Automatic annotation (TrEMBL):
Name the record gives this protein: ATP-binding protein
Gene Ontology MF, one: ATP binding
Keywords: ATP-binding, Nucleotide-binding
Residue ranges annotated for the Saccharopine dehydrogenase-like C-terminal domain, each copy included: 149-406
Domain of life: Bacteria
Pfam families: Sacchrp_dh_C (PF16653), Sacchrp_dh_NADP (PF03435)
Domain Saccharopine dehydrogenase NADP binding: 3-144
Gene3D superfamilies listed in its UniProt record: Dihydrodipicolinate Reductase, domain 2, NAD(P)-binding Rossmann-like Domain
Length: 423
């Protein structure tokens, strides 16, 4: 396997640091618009293993499909791993296809609200542009594996596992994400600094969140999708391993668009523990128009308001030393268990920032996202996972993934997951 990873931000950097410990690939090329950043990631990864020579750096414009395809051909990539913001999904996706490579991402092509009824009807959904090209991927005999980060990604693997191993009937697949993370300044005071891309947070939190219900669709997949206003239906969810109760709200996310395609359930939702401060900031940005991606002219220079907001905040890759606490990604499944009795189960993965900083020099949010595509690449390299076309993680066997993730090093990745029964 020869991997071309596009993106050397927080997640890409963490992925390289994780991957260097594994032997399943022949070459791993780190490409970024900023060559210096790619070189920094290569140095950080290779410094973790004596004699490591499989990593190299390259420059690429992720918005240029031809450039991505040309680089993939040049480095003889068998797999293109997309580790940049979702706005670059389609150029990388189509560039990989043109180069004859397989493809993985952690976020899908962007959505667009319905122009007439944005808080009821669904417009262009996350991933629609990618699924429209499924036939071309199948004809090419190549695999595009979408949404294989943590959420989406691990949560989707949990959905398949719950359907296969734990439940006879699923009422709801409810992804629930929460944390007790705190960022402090040099004086020990709490400060605002998002754990991952602010550009992406604005995109997914201010877009109308999508929900899927079988009954609404009458058995038709597409008719089961509908939208709600941002931050709808708040609920307090009690997260495990000391995180505790966190208020969660509906957010637009890929799980809702992926899970109903391959897992039999009556309802699919995604709720995120944003916190009162984040919700207030997002509402203010929207009110002021600072969430817009449309360029405005400032003293003769064209700038996107959202890009300015993101640029004014700390790079998520740099905040690890000032972060403390744990983050939890998981799936709350309700329905009827294999014994015929009602069941309510939370499958989860908790990561402590102190652990990831100590072992990888990466903050926990980006590390938790990065480990899952590396596990997936290893399963693809060994032939344990395979397929063609455009697929989500739910389409593939969950147990090998979960076993490899949790198995102690060096056989596995040493990152256990858990199951908690809810009353």
């Amino acid at each position: 396997m020869r991997v071309l990873m596009v993106g050397a931000g927080g997640v890409g950097d963490a992925a390289a640091r994780i991957a260097v410990e594994r032997d399943f690939f022949e070459a791993w090329v780190v490409a970024d618009y900023d060559l210096g950043r790619a070189e920094h990631t290569v140095a950080a990864a290779t410094g973790r293993r004596s004699g490591e020579e499989r990593f190299s750096a390259a420059q690429v414009d992720a918005s240029d499909a031809d450039a991505v395809g040309a680089l993939a051909r040049e480095v003889r990539a068998t797999h293109v791993f997309n580790a940049v913001d979702p706005r670059f999904v389609m150029p990388i996706f189509t560039g990989a296809l043109a180069a004859g490579a397989n493809y993985l991402d952690m976020a899908m092509s962007l959505s667009a609200p319905h122009p007439d009824a944005p808080y009821e009807k669904v417009g262009i959904k996350l991933g629609d542009e990618q699924f429209a090209l499924a036939g071309e991927w199948e004809a090419a005999g190549r695999l595009a594996l979408l949404g294989i980060g943590v959420e989406p990604g691990l949560s989707d693997v949990f959905a398949r596992y719950a359907a296969d191993e734990l439940f006879d009937h699923i009422d709801e697949l409810g992804t629930r994400d929460g944390a007790n993370l705190v960022i402090r300044d040099d004086d020990g005071n709490e400060v605002f600094a998002p754990g991952f891309s602010m550009w992406t947070i604005i995109e997914e939190c201010l877009n109308p969140p999508v929900v899927w219900e079988r009954e609404r669709g009458g058995g038709d997949l597409e008719s089961g999708f509908f939208t709600l206003p941002p931050f709808s239906e708040p609920e307090v969810f009690d997260f495990p391993e000391g995180i505790g109760p966190v208020e969660c709200v509906h957010v637009e996310h890929e799980e809702v668009l992926l899970m109903p395609r391959w897992v039999d359930a009556d309802r699919v939702t995604f709720k995120y523990g944003l916190g009162e401060e984040m919700i207030s900031i997002l509402r203010t940005l929207h009110t002021l128009g600072l969430d817009s991606t449309e360029p405005v002219t400032v003293k003769g220079v064209q700038v996107s308001p959202r890009d300015v907001v993101a640029a004014c905040l700390p790079d998520p890759a740099t905040i690890g030393p000032r972060m403390e606490g744990k983050t939890c990604a998981g799936l709350w499944v309700t329905g009827t268990g294999k014994d015929g009795a009602p069941r309510s189960t939370y499958l989860y993965h908790v990561v402590d920032n102190a652990d990831t900083m100590r072992d990888y020099g990466a903050q926990c949010v980006v590390w938790q996202t990065a480990i899952n595509p590396v596990v997936a690449l290893e399963l693809l390299a060994t032939g344990t996972w395979s397929g063609t076309g455009v697929l989500g993680p739910e389409a593939l066997a969950p147990k090998p993934f979960l076993d490899l993730l949790a198995a102690p090093k060096p056989e596995g990745y040493g990152s256990p997951w858990g199951i908690e029964e809810k009353s």
